[in-house]
Amino acid sequence: WMPVNYLVIEALQRMAHYHGESFRVECPTGSGKYLTLWQVAAELSRRLITLFTADLEGHRPANGKAHPLQASPHMREHVTFYEYFHGDTGEGLGARAQTGWTALVAKLLEQSRLWRS
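Structure (tokenized):
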């Protein structure tokens, strides 16, 4: 659910300011790879952003495999904001015009742009 994920990212960022670069956690769990809390927040943001970004074939995970928007050349750039998403595939579920909370991905996109500069 986008609002909960967004709040977790914000909390990680705040904790990163407090704990600094020396505090690291395993991410993902069981990987043996340790990241700062800021890096974990960035990774979670990246994962949420990829629900809406097109892959090399132009498909967006949020639109699902069989969604008409995936095949239409006129609608391929149309981004839908679902209420929640399938945990394994990223396919959007529930209400399709959930531009309230789900639109928080725009804030994550803005932050990710700043992180890269």
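The chain has a mean pLDDT of 85. The two ends are 28 Å apart (CA to CA).
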